[in-house]
Amino acid sequence: MQYFGSIWRPPSEADSLIIQATIGCSHNACLFCSMYRDKSFRIRSTAEVVADLQWARLNLQELRRIFLADGNALAMPPKDLEQILDCIQANFPECRRVSSYAAPGDLLRLTPAELVRLRERGLQLLYVGLESGSNTVLRLMNKGVDSGQLQNACLKAREAGIALSTMLISGLGGRTYSTEHADASAELVNAVQPEYLSLLSLMLPEDAPLAKMVADGRFVPLQALEILHENRRLLAGLNLQRTIFSSNHASNFLSLSGRLPGDKERMLAQIDQALYKPEILRPDYARGL
Ligand code: SF4
Question: Ligand 1, atom 8: nearest CA belongs to which residue?
């Protein structure tokens, strides 16, 4: 089994076998992100990936979940990805779920028929980093796509029957765009109606370009209570029919989880309580990626 560089996966994939279908991120230019700065993007050959899967079959016990890394496994040619999914189905009949991160650009490039074929071969869940619904914030952060493209990409995956776990980053608009970030993000998520929605809070790794913008005063990050006010505004604006919501990620000051719409009022009350009693918040030094 070969691994290249640091490996990232969503918290919910903690027990999954991680297989690198691609290395790094083909965009690798978002100002807040340093996850794959140490790697040049490349797509692995199917032979390499299949060799990893064969090693896993011989050496590991029951595997219920497989996560295809790195940042955008869907950049792989769809025929190659189909071959890898076929290999998983043939060798891991016990596997209940195959998932990966999905870049919006990759989803937009794949045809509806290609996405359906990937789903039929077991790709059941895609993690999409929306980050924000605000075009101002997306542009500022060099995300490379706008809100309309994010919406179209997500709806395309949903129409193919693939479940979506979407992520937003609290504080990504800084102090200047916090309100716009909350309102536009709620609007985008309402249009997508994802199965899962996770909130992360902005962290500033030293090697992320955004850290330099903070240092020279071009970006003013939110403090903990400002993040909570932004979260409250976002949550209040959500109009979701059937979504599992969580802010359990280690980057957050306050951990929330619940089903929307049913648990909305309870989670708003939890935010209000934390605003009244900030000592219950996770201290800044204890936050992590
Ligand atoms: S946030 Fe996602 S798309 Fe942007 S550089 Fe990081 S991994 Fe790539």
Answer: 28
